[in-house]
């Protein structure tokens, strides 16, 4: 079932087309030689069948690997299960409530083999939000790991408190423990033929591949529609800019419900015919050990993980051990090239501390779900001195120069469409072949976001020009008041709804404050009712009962005044300085 496109007016359609055009080349003129992700995977499985594509480490450290031929066969078996048993067709959407696992990757590729899209859920979100996303996505099937099955049942089947997703026809379990009454992923694909055929048309580059949701300042999550071409052209741009080739190996420690984990460390290695090491999650104990053991060349991180690496090094050295981990020395990492870092706020002090401690370069970059993943990076070929100048000398670490699939510019923050020059601060805007198809079922958001033919990021920044005429961009903050915690963005409105449930709270504002570990953390600024004296600990407990730990406030600050604009809108960013004493704190569950 192919969903009909949103009823967009002709002006918005023209603006989206303009925003998907790069250097005068329209999006229908494809800049890669592949017909689909299926075509690309088939080529590698045929040309280099015995080459390892995917290495997976589970929670217990168990290692498994799949060659291109083995991976392709499993993908075909899974596609047969989706198509024949679950009725998934080209244009459908398949949801996941899962985590990093080889099975999850196989499922993603099986959907793309059919021409279906994946709607991965972030388990750090609260149940009501996931239920909304499942309903809004129109997904037909949901795959849940056995650890998340009970939660998935509640989210999909219950109908109170904003739960329920009646569009989900079936829940399929994944993991080691089959559950009675449910089809089980591994059991169902085991007897399938390793060649999938159907009577449907083959998928194309224009088929939808991902539907990922991003928070908006209105509070309602917006579905970002990305095509197979979006994924592949961004992977092409990343591989070219980072000089990643087929004889190199990347490592994934970021969640693959997010575009960073998917595009940088799954699609990019596939694009060049390389390989990837997939971890259940980041762990300081195993980070450098696995880079050394698997001869990893590049790893993608967020600023939070740089801080964790520094903390681990300090702990190791305090006990007289190697800062890289027990038994690991610098020469064991001689093949390692650099770290890609983005998605969160990177402080100069953190960047300098990491690079000086580990003597490894950070290739800082920037992008959004709406632009598939990365839109710019620091150049890889610049000298160490020049690298340090762009990282440290301008008040903010540079996010680098645009990659080949897209252009970047700075426009007036008022949305008038006036383009600004070097050193002038305004809104970072992007246009190119990696710009999304649009927001799903949100013509209002599409009209505003593409107002003048560029994608408007909502982030403030500027650029400077080097001796070669290259534009080096910088991000200075947000025009929108989203909270960016470790690369995951939360709307303050969702948190504030929970704060206002608490007796004695007259006004409760969610505030993003700077934090060493997650770039930003969540604080609560509370104005009590007259005569009331709400307790800070009670406020935090209430929020943690209603929200996930990641989303819940970690600190409460009480006050009597609220900064507002001339039109009466709250100015949350002006409250950030009230939380400075917690900048270096690490908050634990």
Entry keywords:
589 residues, alpha/beta, Rossmann fold, GMP Synthetase, Chain A, domain 3, 3 domains, nine-stranded mixed sheet, five-stranded parallel sheet, globular
What does this structure look like?
The protein is α/β, with parallel strands linked by helices. The protein folds into 3 domains: about 65-205, Rossmann fold (3-Layer(aba) Sandwich), CATH 3.40.50; about 250-480, ANL, N-terminal domain (Rossmann fold); about 485-580, 2-Layer Sandwich (GMP Synthetase, Chain A, domain 3). Helix content is about 30%, strand content about 25%. A 9-stranded mixed beta sheet has the order 2-1-11-10-12-13-14-15-16. The longest helix is centred in the N-terminal third of the chain and has 18 residues, at about 70-85. The radius of gyration is 23 Å and the shape is globular. About 50% of the residues are buried.
Describe the structure in brief:
It is globular, with a radius of gyration of 23 Å. The protein has 589 residues and is α/β, with parallel strands linked by helices. The strands form 6 sheets. Strands 2-1-11-10-12-13-14-15-16 form a 9-stranded mixed β-sheet. It has a 5-stranded parallel β-sheet with strand order 4-3-5-6-7, sandwiched between helices. It has a 4-stranded antiparallel β-sheet with strand order 17-18-20-21, covered by helices on one side.
């Amino acid at each position: 079932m192919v969903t009909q496109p949103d009823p967009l007016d002709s002006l918005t359609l023209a603006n989206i087309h303009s925003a998907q055009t790069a250097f005068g080349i329209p999006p229908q003129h494809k800049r890669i030689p592949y017909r689909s992700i299926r075509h690309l995977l088939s080529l590698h499985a045929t040309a280099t069948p015995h080459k390892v594509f995917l290495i997976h480490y589970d929670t217990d450290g168990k290692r498994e690997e799949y060659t291109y031929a083995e991976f392709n066969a499993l993908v075909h078996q899974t596609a047969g299960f989706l198509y024949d048993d679950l009725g998934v067709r080209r244009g459908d959407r398949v949801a996941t409530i899962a985590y990093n696992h080889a099975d999850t990757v196989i499922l993603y590729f099986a959907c793309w083999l059919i021409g279906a899209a994946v709607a991965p859920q972030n388990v750090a979100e609260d149940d009501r939000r996931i239920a909304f996303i499942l309903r809004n996505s129109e997904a037909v099937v949901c795959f849940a790991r056995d650890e998340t099955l009970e939660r998935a049942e509640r989210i999909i089947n219950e109908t109170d408190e904003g739960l329920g997703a009646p569009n989900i026809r079936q829940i399929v379990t994944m993991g080691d423990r089959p559950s009675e009454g449910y089809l089980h992923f591994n059991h169902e694909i085991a007897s399938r033929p390793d060649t999938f055929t159907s009577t449907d048309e083959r998928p194309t580059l224009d088929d939808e591949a991902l539907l990922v949701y991003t928070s908006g300042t209105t509070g309602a999550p917006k579905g970002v529609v990305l095509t197979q071409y979006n994924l592949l052209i961004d992977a092409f741009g990343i591989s070219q800019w980072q000089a990643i080739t087929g004889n190199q190996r990347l490592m994934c420690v970021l969640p693959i419900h997010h575009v960073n984990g998917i595009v940088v460390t799954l699609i990019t290695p596939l694009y060049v015919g390389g390989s990837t090491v997939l971890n259940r999650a980041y762990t300081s104990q195993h980070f450098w050990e696995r880079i050394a053991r698997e001869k990893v060349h590049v790893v993608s991180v967020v600023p939070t993980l740089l801080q964790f690496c520094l903390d681990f090094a300090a702990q190791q050295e305090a006990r007289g051990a190697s800062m890289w981990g027990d038994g690991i020395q610098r020469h064991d990492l001689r093949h390692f090239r650099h770290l890609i870092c983005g998605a969160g706020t990177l402080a100069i002090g953190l960047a300098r501390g990491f690079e000086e401690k580990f003597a490894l370069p950070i290739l800082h970059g920037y992008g959004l779900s709406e632009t598939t993943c990365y839109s710019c990076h620091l150049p890889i070929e610049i000298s160490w001195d020049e690298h340090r100048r762009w990282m440290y000398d301008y008040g903010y670490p540079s996010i680098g120069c645009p990659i080949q699939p897209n252009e970047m510019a700075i426009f007036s923050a008022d949305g008038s469409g006036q383009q600004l020059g070097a050193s002038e601060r305004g809104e970072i805007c992007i246009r190119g072949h990696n710009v999304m198809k649009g927001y799903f079922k949100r013509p209002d958001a599409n009209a505003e976001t593409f107002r003048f033919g560029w994608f408007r990021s909502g982030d403030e920044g500027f650029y400077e020009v080097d001796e070669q005429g290259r534009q080096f961009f910088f991000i200075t903050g947000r025009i929108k008041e989203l909270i960016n915690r470790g690369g995951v963005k939360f709307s303050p409105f969702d948190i504030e709804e929970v704060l206002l449930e608490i007796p004695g709270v007259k006004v409760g504002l969610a505030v993003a404050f700077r934090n060493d570990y997650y770039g930003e953390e969540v604080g609560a600024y509370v104005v009590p009712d007259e005569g009331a004296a709400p307790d800070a600990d009670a406020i935090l407990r209430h929020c943690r009962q209603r929200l996930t730990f990641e989303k819940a406030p970690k600190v409460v600050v009480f006050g009597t005044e609220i900064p507002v604009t001339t039109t009466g809108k709250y100015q949350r960013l002006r409250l950030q300085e009230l939380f400075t004493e917690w900048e270096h704190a690490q908050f634990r569950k």
